[in-house]
Amino acid sequence: ETGVTQTPRHLVMGMTNKKSLKCEQHLGHNAMYWYKQSAKKPLELMFVYSLEERVENNSVPSRFSPECPNSSHLFLHLHTLQPEDSALYLCASSQVEKSYNEQFFGPGTRLTVL
Amino acid sequence: TQLLEQSPQFLSIQEGENLTVYCNSSSVFSSLQWYRQEPGEGPVLLVTVVTGGEVKKLKRLTFQFGDARKDSSLHITAAQPGDTGLYLCAGRRSGTYKYIFGTGTRLKVLA
After folding, report:
1. Cβ distance A65 to A77 under 8 Å?
2. How far is B14 from chain A, CA to nearest CA, in Å?
3. Across-strand partners of B60?
4. Count H helices, E strands: chain B?
5. Which of A50, A98, B14, B39 has its CA 20 to 30 A from that of A28?
6. Cα atoms in the 13 Å half-sphere on the side-chain side of B111
7. What is the per-residue pLDDT for A59?
């Protein structure tokens, strides 16, 4: 596997379910990100983990809970979601010491909340 | 809230035509990136520009960073159906490694 991988690619869940999204990066980077992409809205940064420590949380609802056990893996735990949470969830990684901090994205998980 | 406005929002053109997409902000960025995203996939990085006035070329794509580092443009020459996709710009302000994404331009090139 190369680059950034995400599983599952598609997920349908009810509002009372609990599920987790997984992201893995094979680039040796030290920062990982979760983004939400909804129709007609810019990409929204949800969480950043740098050197396995969460450094930013843009007021995301507590029904989204990130976990970063090491620099290669990132999870997004979901519980009691709302239909408006349906979106494409993208994971990205980067090497923050590099001057450009170029981010590399995974293919995303298409989430539908019924 | 920092905003990166892209124009046009939608563009449908015939194969072989030229086009320009714009990315504008009132903020100064230390670097700016352009991505292309195809349906069902994540954004793929095309280029990063860092110097005011910088021009970078990637085959038929020409990227320019504004002199004041507040805006950027992407010009495609002789567009092909394979250029179809969502084009996103993303700017990073000095002192942070976080990128702010633009509103996107959805391009469709018809054969």
Report:
1. yes
2. 24
3. none
4. 0, 11
5. B39
6. 2
7. 81
pLDDT, tens digit, 9 for 90 and up, residues B19-65? 999 999 999 999 999 999 998 889 999 999 999 999 999 999 999 99
CB distance A98 to B33 below 8 Å: no
Helix (H, G, I), strand (E, B) or coil at A13: strand
> pLDDT tens-digit profile of A19-35?
999 999 999 999 999 99
Contact (CB, 8 A) for B68 and B88: no
Q: Which run of H or of E encompasses A94?
A: strand A87-94
Burial class from Cβ neighbours inside 10 Å (0-12, 13-18, 19+) for residue A34 reads buried
Contact call for B44 and A92, based on CB within 8 A: no
Q: Which residues of B touch A34 (CB under 8 A)?
A: none
Inter-chain touch A105–B101, beta carbons under 8 Å? no
- Taking the C-alpha atoms of residue B99 and residue A50, their distance in angstroms, rounded to an integer, is 14
Q: How far apart are CA A13 and CA A82, in angstroms?
A: 10
Confirm if A30 and A51 have CB atoms less than 8 A apart: yes
The pLDDT, as a whole number, for residue B45 is 92
How far is the alpha carbon of B101 from chain A, nearest alpha carbon, in Å?
A: 6
